[in-house]
Amino acid sequence: xxxxxxxxxxxxxxxxxxxxxxxxxxxxxxxxxxxxxxxxxxxxxxxxxxxxxxxxxxxxxxxxxxxxxxxxxxxxxxxxxxxxxxxxxxxxxxxxxxxxxxxxxxxxxxxxxxxxxxxxxxxxxxxxxxxxxxxxxxxxxxxxxxx
Length: 147
Prior knowledge:
7 helices, 44% helix
């Protein structure tokens, strides 16, 4: 499965460690993380070799190629909000799903557009730690018997 893992690049990167754990487990299970480079320490510096338009076009192509979008929203990020909104806005056509995650301890600081999301193509989950997050995502991505 192709997974677009969305997380902040220029904002609060508080969730990077837990996302690294998640990405490693997903890759071990045979999934492809299209945006794996976002978990690198100097992602903003590495991305600076590309122009703004190049990043936009590349990421839009990855969004279109993804089977599912896993978005971590604990740290404020306009980009993650854009990505989630874009995918949900066309989910009836694309049939893509969004898994919208945030650290439950940050609930009071997470946008209510995240914590209150009820879009039918979106599952929102406030995780407690890396083990909880990995367990939930593995169940979410598990094939449905008979399909």
